[in-house]
Amino acid sequence: MCSTGGPMADIDLKKLKTKRYRCLDCGNEFKGLGRKVVCPSCQSDNVESKE
Hints:
- The chain is an all-beta fold and 51 residues long.
- It has a domain at 17-49.
- It contains no helices and three strands.
- It has strands at residues 19-23, 29-32, 47-49.
- A hairpin with a 5-residue loop joins strand 1 and strand 2.
């Protein structure tokens, strides 16, 4: 994980509230977090929430 602007906090990523997404370009289904979710397979931002 990359961090800028100071030390990184010790965060357990498994405890963060993630959503399930589906990429409308390549069909990949994945978990994401944040406002601007991008498909990890094709880097498209054309994704929809499955929740």
